[in-house]
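Recap from last week: sequence in, structure out.
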Amino acid sequence: MIVNYTNQGWEITTQRAHGLLAAQVAMHWAVKERAQRWTETLLAIAEHDDARTELESAQLLTPQGGPLNFDMQLFDPEHCRLLHNYALSKSRYIALLTSMHMVFLYQKEEKTNPLVKPFLKEQARLQKQWLKELDMDEKEVQRIYNLLEWCDAFSLLLCQHSVQPEERTVEISNGPDSRPYHLQSKGNQLTVKPWPFETETFEVRVEKRIVEQLQFKDNDEFRKCFLEAEVKEMIWQLTS
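Predicted structure tokens:
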């Protein structure tokens, strides 16, 4: 989950909601730049972290009893196994993109966690196998994955309230064309430079929950407060 501390309490966006927001952004990508397997690409973007369901997780709290933000979580073999199985049950193409994203996330732990190196080696083997079976070019798949990573980064910037005030820009990530893209406030709207989307304006939204209690004795107490919390929507208008 994505956790922000506000004057009302904890603002929480689930991982699946964040993935849905990323897919909303991707849905508006310029038509001429879309992958041939566009429906599968959108599903991969929407579901790139769908194995992490907050209410079923055994690790929801920090040692101080606050909700655990996503970037505090380390490599979890069981989570990766579930994510692999979910993706592969749809298609090898989705499994390939999901595998590339897991490698992107966990390769930084290779030197500190002995479980990560064999995991990365196995993912490399699977990716090579799927590329051959799908008869796809490695460079093209990397370009498609770069879009997934870009939309993931874009969604995180919005969910974490990282848009800068006074029309200052913040870098999103390098896009599929390897160019850097920047997000900027534009009055009450947002814009992206350079503009990569098909339409000149569109809207995206995500659900969040405000949990007023700041500390919890255990996961069950947090789950109860989470389920009872008011659900609100964050909405953004993007325009070229």
